[in-house]
Structures are given as structure tokens and as C-alpha cells.
Specification:
single chain; mainly alpha; 2 domains; globular
């Protein structure tokens, strides 16, 4: 009987990508220090994954990311595309019986990955994140035309959405000049402090 249990345990561990992975015992603590979320409280009910609107596009479902954080699989988490695909909608937190926010854990993982200059598992999504923040720093809010323009330049996919852009422009959905907000100086000071 013990042999069967050991074999099942090994199969489950392999299923969670433990086989051959380097384990970082302090990774879970690092995530908690940044996010305020204790991943060890997750008991793998799967509610986060069931409710996640982006789960269909993720190679590793949100509940498995939580498990990998628990197991200290730092490299696997930080190199995954999943952390870059999280929309931050907090549906996971609303559905979690433990009140955990997988979105905050994903944010923390992205922050760690960027800090260590780890190449993102989904480079175009990472470019979009960077350009979105740069656009908010420039204008105080997102200006769709400049955001997409800079994103398309950096992702080297400049012409693929021109027909859609023309339709949106003709319907008045794309403003050529960004609208200024009150307190733009405050926003810019905030971003300077972050650097």
C-alpha cells in the first residue's frame, strides 16, 4: 500500500512540474512580502481558475501558479507567460473561499521577474504593460492612439491593425490629441519617485 501512495505522490509532484525543477524555499515568502498574500493558505479548490476570464489563454492555470509558489518553483513561475496574461480583474479574490488574490500574487511575480530582468514568457504582453505605464506617466491617463502606436512600434507589428484603427477613428473612438488631466504634475512626480 505504501508503494502505491508513494507512486501517486510522485505522479502528482511531476504533474505540478516539480520533477527536475530547482526549488527556492524563500520564494513564497518573497511573494508574500510584495503582495501581502500568503500563498500557503491556498488549498487548491480551483475556484480562481474556474472564474478567471483569461485562464483559457494561460499555459499554467492560476491555481497551479499558486501551488508552484507554495512549492518554491521560482524559475517556472517567473518564466511563465501566465503571470503576464493575468488581467488583474480580481475575480479570483471574489471567488476564493480563503479571500486570496491570485492577481496580487501574479503582480508580485511580474515585479520580481522585471527586477531580475527575466525574459517574459509572453514578450508582447510585457511590452504592452510597459507602454501602458509609460503612457499614463506621459498623459496622466491612457491615450489609446499613442499607447497602441508605441506598442506596435516596439512589438514590430506596425500595420496589422490599421483597418480596425481607421474604423475606430471614423466612429470617433480614437482621439488624436490626448486629453490632459488635472494634477498631471502629481502623476509625473509619482512615476519619477518609482524610478
Amino acid at each position: 500500500m505504501d508503494q502505491q501512495v508513494a507512486e501517486k505522490k510522485q505522479a502528482v509532484e511531476c504533474d505540478f512540474v516539480v520533477c527536475g525543477a530547482e526549488i527556492a524555499p524563500t520564494f513564497c515568502e518573497e511573494i508574500e512580502n510584495i503582495s501581502g498574500e500568503n500563498a500557503l493558505q491556498c488549498y487548491q479548490c480551483g475556484e480562481c481558475t474556474a472564474g478567471c476570464p483569461a485562464a483559457f489563454a494561460m499555459e499554467i492555470p492560476p491555481n497551479r501558479i499558486m501551488r508552484m509558489v507554495q512549492l518554491g518553483l521560482e524559475d517556472k513561475v517567473l518564466q511563465s507567460a501566465t503571470i503576464w496574461l493575468c488581467a488583474g480583474c480580481e475575480t479570483c479574490a471574489a471567488r476564493c473561499p480563503r479571500g486570496l488574490s491570485v492577481a496580487k500574487v501574479m503582480d508580485a511575480a511580474r515585479e520580481i521577474a522585471r527586477g531580475r530582468r527575466i525574459k517574459p514568457g509572453e514578450p508582447k504582453v510585457a511590452i504592452f504593460h510597459e507602454e501602458f505605464l509609460a503612457d499614463v506617466a506621459r498623459n496622466g491617463r491612457a491615450h489609446e492612439l499613442s499607447l497602441i502606436g508605441f506598442y506596435k512600434l516596439k512589438s514590430r507589428n506596425l500595420f496589422s491593425d490599421i483597418p480596425l484603427a481607421i474604423k475606430m477613428f471614423l466612429k470617433g473612438k480614437l482621439a488624436i490629441i490626448p486629453k490632459r488631466i488635472k494634477g498631471l504634475g502629481e502623476v509625473r512626480r509619482f512615476f519619477r519617485k518609482l524610478k
